[in-house]
Amino acid sequence: MLTDRMRLRILVRGAVQGVGFRPFVYRLAKEMGLMGYVLNDTGGVEIEVEGEKELLEEFFYRLTSEKPPLARIHAIESQFLEPVGYEDFTIKESQGAGNKQVFILPDMSVCEDCLKELFDPSNRRYMYPFINCTNCGPRFTIIERLPYDRPNTTMKVFQMCPECDKEYHDPKDRRFHAQPNACPECGPWLSLYSGKGELLEERNGALELVAELLKEGHILAVKGVGGFHLMCNALEERVVSLLRERKRRKEKPFAVMFRNLEQLLEYAEPTSLEKALLLSPERPIVLVRSKEKLAPSVAPSLKRVGAFLPYSPIHYLLLNALDFPLVATSGNFSEEPIVKDNEEALTKLNCLADFILAHNRDIKRRCDDSVVKVVGGFPLPVRRSRGYAPMPITLPFKLRRKVLAVGGMLKNTFALAFEDKVFISQHVGDVENLETLRAFEQMVYDLMELYEFEPELVVCDMHPRYETSRWARHFAEEKGLKLMEVQHHFAHILSCMAENALEAQVLGIAWDGTGYGEDGTLWGGEFLEVSYEGYKRLFHIKPFKLLGGEKAVKEPRRVALSLIFELYGDKAFELELPPVRAFSERELHNLYVAWKEGINSPYSSSAGRLFDAVASLLDIRHVISYEGQSAMLLEDLYKPSVKDYYPFEVSNLQIDWRPTFEALIKDRDKEGIPSRFINTLAHVCAHVAKEAGMERVCLSGGVFQNDPLVSKIKELLEAEGFKVFLHQKVPTNDGGICLGQAVYGGLKEV
């Protein structure tokens, strides 16, 4: 029988023992009619609750917003799972057994106690931009080596004053052994520079001047926890457009920082789960429905905005002095690493920002903001970085060896794996140029040095042209290590299996833009039978030609034209279709010859490219300015009221897209096309799942960042008794494949 009943497992780390946290959880669960348990263990508090999914989401929100006054949450790890049938809610006996493991904690948002002091005129840390305590503040971005003691952090250059030193050594004080502990007398301070590098103001005077400059419509580079942000008024179209022009970021959406949840609600409509994510200690950017009151250039043509709340004292002080939200995007040129050092900012950001607000607490390692999106009713990391990295993923088994897994090329993260832990790096980015390759290499060596990690095996993607794979081959050869290459989509599904603690065989549906296949073609619409030992390619989308190869990735019109040539041959020239009109007569002729002769037209089975083709056929987008743009625009056009779908055929283990696109091209209801197309893909998944006959189905790959697609697939498959597993801990895009690589390398006989 179908039910919305689920189990929510939550691990809470921080000062949550001995502060009435378990009784609070017990009362909350009882009040809400939820079943399960709460217990103290060696890592914090473990909670499992079962009930209707909407109630679980409300429970998660209230857990963070109504916690006991003395409870201090450092980190929360949550996961929706299948119910096990709890009949009551109980407080279990504390678990004292087991090894107490010390992990490097992520950087945490400023706590409520510090916030009260920050805005208390009678407090000695009033308006101090670096206020922190044991329960909050920077960790990962300031530690230089283990153990985590002040001399091993970038704070070592600041000698504590007598009052700070007394707090630091008092076991009863909440700043007891708070390594970044400081105050205006002895700690770091702010410095404001002009774009020409002239020092204009320091300390609180700098902060006051920055607020005035933002009110006047200037663009500021502001040094935060893991690097610099570029900030400006999110309501003023002129300045947001200027930032786009300077940053060379044509349309890719900007994130917006709001003063508090109340201000955010003026401009966006988050769900209860999205509110809980926004308020969580990790403070990620959360993709929420926009009310379209922000400057149009914040997120051109999109119905969602990347919203987040302040997480450092500097942000709180800035936003508190303003009556408008701020664009807060990475301080860099597009496709380059985020800037983290003052000197680098003065030389690289001076052409992007009018003024630069720096400080003299060094950032040891750059760390971008994390991004989360609710997909299929579950929180999905789109980018796992600040607030989450470098907390490990715990496996349901132990690995045979220590593994360095270098990940993919786009949205890169890499992993260090040993025993039953996989430590995934912060977001690196797209490793497509020398700057990002250098940053990637620096981050690999840095994390290995931090954990004193010596790999026994190096694992990479099998794509011959990935810069990360080239680096891995050179590194393995230089160190005398074995190298293992893992197929891209296999790694995607292994990643989903590992984070969901699945050990049995699964049907893996791996859909993305591009991944190198074992037959030398470009895969991306795959149905795989997967276990930790290996995989078998069961079904795939019928391959089509990518006109111009890499050019087709940036030009959806080329993908659409290739499909039109396949359907209509040279009669395509006579058709009044947007992709045909997007080229001149000469271009059409040359492209047809290239298609027919297979000149620079590799075969692809990519589901992601089919989204591009639909966007072009609907005259929505013929050339894209960032990856996934077509799919995001189509997702916004989805209508749940549209239930029908286009025909498709499955033969010779291939999903034939031709009947789908013939019907789509003839469809006169243009507004319904995006919905029917997405519904069709979901029905394809349901059809193949029945053919494959495996109960457990894992979805992975960038295409599954699409909420209506994932929701429809879950609806169809669960109605047929299948169990669908999604990503909730690592990105479903290429930012998560290093987990799958690490697991395979750690288990496989070599």
Description:
With 750 residues, the protein is an alpha/beta fold. The chain has 4 domains: 5-91, Alpha-Beta Plaits (2-Layer Sandwich); 102-399, DHBP synthase, CATH 3.90.870; 401-502 and 732-747, 2-Layer Sandwich (Nucleotidyltransferase, domain 5); 541-725, Nucleotidyltransferase, domain 5 (2-Layer Sandwich). The chain is 32% helix and 22% strand. It has an 11-stranded mixed beta sheet, sandwiched between helices. Helix 1 (21-32) packs antiparallel against helix 2 (53-65), helix 5 (203-215) packs across helix 9 and helix 13 crosses helix 23 (737-747). The longest helix is centred in the last third of the chain and has 20 residues, at 673-692. It is globular and about 80 Å long.
List the helices and strands and how they pair.
Layout: E1 5-15, H1 21-32, E2 35-41, E3 44-52, H2 53-65, E4 72-81, E5 89-91, H3 112-118, H4 162-168, E6 190-194, E7 199-202, H5 203-215, E8 220-223, E9 228-233, H6 237-247, E10 255-257, H7 261-267, H8 272-279, E11 285-289, E12 304-308, H9 313-320, E13 326-330, H10 342-348, E14 355-359, E15 371-375, E16 378-383, E17 393-394, E18 403-405, E19 415-418, E20 421-424, H11 434-450, E21 457-461, H12 467-479, E22 482-486, H13 488-499, E23 506-516, E24 522-531, E25 534-541, E26 544-545, H14 550-554, H15 556-568, H16 578-581, H17 585-597, E27 603-604, H18 607-617, H19 629-636, E28 649-651, E29 654-656, H20 658-666, H21 673-692, E30 696-700, H22 707-719, E31 723-725, H23 737-747
Keywords:
single chain, 750 residues, Alpha-Beta Plaits, DHBP synthase, Nucleotidyltransferase, domain 5, 11-stranded mixed sheet, 7-stranded mixed sheet, 32% helix
